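Q: What would this complex look like in 3D?
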Amino acid sequence: MSRGRQRTGMVRSYTPTGGVARPTRRTLDDATLLMVDEEKELRGLEPEPYRVMELCRPGRLSLAEVSYHLHLPRTVTTVIVAHLVDSGHLIARAPVPAASVHDTALLERILDGLHAL
Amino acid sequence: MGSTLSDRDYVPDRVSQSVKIVVLGSFGVGKTTYVRAVSEIRSMHTEEAMTQAGEAIDDLSGVRDKTTTTVTMDFGRLTLTTDLVLYLFGAPGQDRFLPMVTQLMDGALGALVLVDTRRLDQSFTSIDLVERAGLPYAIAVNTFPDAPTYADTEIRDSLTMENSTPLVRIDARVRDSAKRALIALISNMLGRPHLETAP
Ligand SMILES: Nc1nc2c(ncn2[C@@H]2O[C@H](COP(=O)(O)OP(=O)(O)OP(=O)(O)O)[C@@H](O)[C@H]2O)c(=O)[nH]1
Ligand SMILES: [Mg+2]
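A: Here is my prediction, written as structure tokens for the whole assembly.
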């Protein structure tokens, strides 16, 4: 058996060391929208991050959708995506939380959207 | 796999903002049914490995010898406008997944609590959770055929609901009916009356 990388290397290499989580990782939500930075090279990416980039390239998806389409556990997806956000491959937009809905404009848009469905 | 997704699996290109609404309720109350009825695309789910204590496992090293369980979480999507998308997440019903539900509520715009009049007392856990999280919420009575019918005031009393909390009656299997719970929630957040008449 090779003494190189372990099979679990994908996950382990994205697991923060020293028990300190990367900042992005804590701010990634299931409903966070992910967008690809087209300028970034995919060469050199490991297979799992590469698959995430391939999936996201044609259009926008949330973190939860990426998990679903790639059949990856949510937490594993979060770790991979956090790394890709830190490297600039992905751009993440967090959902608008209740606490920051001061302007009614967003709520109005949601309501209009619901009525129109 | 990624390469086989169709255009409509993706969020439209101009959409740059998302909101999240969590659907809670006791075991078997109709959360999965609700998310499926309202979603514009086939409903989806995520999977997560959990410890017996209900904590999500995000560090795969060192947990292999602990007893783990897999929890599935349903979610759906609704494109509301050309630049806004709504994600609906069905929280797992069992109490042992509470830590995960708490995490799910983080970043949410609001919540819906589905209740079944045959088991009103089983709704308290969910109501407590959303209240503790400080989330705006609406109560949606999922109407099952053999369930006893109560007046709104009786339900409000049983659940010790604030008068300002919206109460709607829905059929979680029917999109237009299910949608009314979301409309009631958002209307209420806007400070609008949400006129609903009991069936
Ligand atoms: N008659 C009627 N049946 C419903 C309605 N909503 C759900 N059901 C049925 O109730 C059962 C449970 O519904 P689910 O959607 O699986 O409930 P759930 O809350 O996701 O259940 P757990 O995830 O196990 O907690 C299913 O057999 C549904 O078909 C409703 O509005 N009316
Ligand atoms: Mg379910």
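A: To summarize the key features: Chain A touches chain B through 50 residues (CB under 8 Å). The CA atoms of residues 26 and 106 of chain A lie 25 Å apart.
Q: Very helpful, thank you.
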